[in-house]
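PROTOCOL LOG
Step 1. Enter all chains and additional molecules of the complex.
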Amino acid sequence: MAEDVLAPLAGKVLSVAVGVGDVVEEDDELLVLEAMKMETVVYAPADGTVSAITAQIGQQVEEDDPLMTLE
Amino acid sequence: MVTAFSVFINGISGVFTGIAVLYLMMKLLAIVAERSTADSTPSAPKSTTR
Amino acid sequence: MAFFEQLGILAVTPGMVVMWLIALTLIYLAIGREFEPLLLLPIGFGILVANLPLTELMTPGEGLIWRFYHYGVEWEVIPPLIFLGLGAHTDFGPLLSQPRLIFLGAAAQGGVYATFFAAQAFGFTLQESATIGIIGGADGPTTIFLAAQLAPHLLGACAVAAYSYMALVPIIQPPIMRLLTTEQERKIRMKKARKVTAREKLWFPVTATIVILLLVPASAPLMAMFMLGNLFRESKVVERLTDTAQNALMNITTIFLGLAVGATMSADAFLRGDVIFIFVLGLAAFCVSTACGLLLAKLMNLFTNDKINPLVGAAGVSAVPMAARVVHKVGAEADKKNYLLMFAMGPNVSGVIGTVVAAGIFLTMLD
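Step 2. Run joint prediction.
Step 3. Record the structure below.
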């Protein structure tokens, strides 16, 4: 069952910690967003395997924009 | 004569009153804005050709 | 010989040397520690040059920096222009999506009034007490705006106190936040904010201007400029003006403001017993404001099922966006997946409005 990881707030993607195919556990660090000159880490909502990454470094995202998908 | 106490009371009540009015205004704004966008959306979906 | 008569070095007093050390400390903090550098660097330099004798930089009527001060600050031009820029930077979305958070910005003015009361109990005049109290609003331009009209002799000290404590918010607030909230409360996840339409964000500055100016006309110079800047931004049709307001204008006014404010701090103006009180009271103002914001949030939670994380109350202290960042960090310590930043922006921006209203009321009553 695929689950989209959505952006918890609006910001700029600074770095992505995982690659497609990586197995992650709930609460693993997935990527870092920058908002209001502060770094926020986005964590995995559940266990799974990264099936797709839509977020790109430098991309400006809005709240609830899809960042990546977990299977 | 303006006393510290009167400034204190006027100040606190003034800030809360001002903010309260602003609060009501924001609530009103939310309602009016929603209504005007609702008016502009089509009421029935476009019919599709078979 | 004339050259020796004009030597500044012969007119140096010990007080001036003390001010040089203060100036150099501020410059070091700005450059070495990046402590509010945009303001503290020009302020520090202003203090330095104002305390080098015989330069006539601050001679009324003639001095270069006196002119910046007189026409920019005394004439109340620069602080409103800074507010134009601040309005152009501000996004009222987070506040509009949860209007009840505006009361947290109002509550955070509690420190202003508590300090006002304490200051006048310590012997300061009502005007001086108001100026010291407004430091608790954590708003540099408003502090300067009020000081210039009510207590210009305290302007330098109050401004430096305000900007210093704003930079120290990440140190001042967390202990208070942890003291007044339980771990449970800090973990509260707030319900997703509703999406705010562009139209609402567009009408807000216009309606807010009308409402606030009708209620507190004395706040007009700051509030009208703030809302105009916001209108520039939300109209999306004056990008050039928005860009100027956000960048060039902010930068220009900041340069003049910092330099002029620093230059008011001559040795005789600053090295008085009062100044220690100002710094102590200013700190107390920040602390009480933080506490009031937190406590109102907790109180509001008693009356609603849709719980507010009380930490966001601390963001009512309008150090934008520093206080919001601090709220997020403290919240993340309790629950790393709790993203409080955008919720905290609501009280943060409403705190700006609250402080300006408070200043307007002080002016109405004390000018």
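Step 4. Note key features.
The interface with chain A takes residues 321, 324-325, 328-329, 332, 336-337, 339, 341-342, 345 of chain C (CB under 8 Å).
Chain C has a mean pLDDT of 95.
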